[in-house]
Amino acid sequence: MSLRLSTLILPHRRWHEGGRATWQRAEQLGFHTAFTYDHLSWRSFRDGPWFGAVPTLTAAAAATDHLRLGTLVTSPNFRHPVTLAKELISLDDISGGRITLGIGAGGNGFDATALGQEPWGPRERADRLGEFVPLLDRLLTEDSVSYEGDFYSAHEARNIPGCVQRPRLPFAVAATGPRGMRLAARYGQAWVTTGDPKLYADGTPEQSVQAIRGQAEKLSDACAEIGRDAAGLDKILLTGFTPDRARPLESLNAFVDFAGRHRDLGFTEIVVHWPIAGTDFAADEKVFEQIAMEASAQLD
Fold first, then answer.
1. Which of 33, 53, 82, 173 is buried deepest, with most CB atoms within 10 A?
2. Which residues, at least 6 apart from 224, have a Cβ–Cβ distance to it below 8 Å?
3. Integer CA distances (angstroms), 219 to 105, 178, 185, in order
């Protein structure tokens, strides 16, 4: 399978002041998927413009024709599976079946306290995700769902007519720990990683590749436990959080080298951030577009 190249567009621009044009340009450049973050605010962008993921993707669906669209990632931090399912079914319908849901446990950033709650620890985040994903799977595949869990409930929740994509839109499960890997193995059509965060500051690219190889092996083990072939899952690397940082976007050759090393680990999709000047995602836009248009041919 050819390595697919996708992008992640931060929802920080007004739609009529460059937002629409960016998503349309992503389609023109031939990206497989354009993702966005599903946060209420995020890191250094907290005090600036930031728009909602679902409305942004709805607008992007109307402004494009064949580009796949999705979140990287949605989490339980401020989402409930019942209301999220209704939004996803609507979004999948509007897009003509072009939506992928990236989903993960979330973190302890701004989303974790925006609704007034105390931030959940790693164990509770994992517990919640472990209940969230199976319930969301049911909500997207069954006409009526009732459920009473430790964290989430549904009472005769109706989701007719369901997704355009059958049996439901694909889940791309972000995971590095054993419980998340098991969720990816059972419910995911794809697995997502950003690498090992402990290596970001002081690690080397070689150490990062080794760590990611270890993560992929754990995914294979989780799949084997339930009799699933891990080769049947897409494997997505969201770049920008490994020790390489922005270096893969410095030239076409640098990107092809980086992507090739991860393709050899079994990755089927590489996601690069759309350049934003003056941020950690700054990059030469001409080089970025060259990578978008030419890298895939060199990676076949």
1. 173
2. 230
3. 16, 8, 7
Q: Which amino acid makes up residue 85?
A: A
The torsion angle over the Cα atoms of residues 258, 300, 10 and 90, rounded to 10 degrees, is -150
Q: Which residue has the tokens 């989903």?
A: 103
CA angle, residues 172, 177, 182, in degrees to nearest 5: 60
Q: Please say whether the beta carbons of 10 and 275 come within 8 A.
A: no
- pLDDT tens digits, one per residue of 99-132: 999 999 999 989 999 999 999 999 999 999 999 9
* 77, 149, 154, 109 alpha-carbon torsion, rounded to 10°: 0
Q: Supply the pLDDT for residue 1.
A: 60
Rounded CA-CA distance 182/121 in Å is 20
Strands (E), the chain: 4-8, 33-36, 68-74, 99-103, 144-148, 153-158, 171-174, 190-193, 234-238, 269-273
| CB of 270 closer than 8 Å to CB of 6 | yes
C-beta of residue 244 within 8 angstroms of C-beta of residue 208:
yes
Identify the pLDDT of residue 300. Answer: 85
DSSP conformation letters of 87-130:
HHHHHHHHHTS-EEEEE----SSGGGTTTSPPPPPHHHHHHHHH
The set of residues, in sequence order, having a beta carbon less than 8 Å from that of 64 and lying 6+ positions away, is 23, 24, 26, 27
Predicted local distance difference test score (pLDDT) of residue 2:
82
Which residues face 270 on adjacent strands? 5, 237
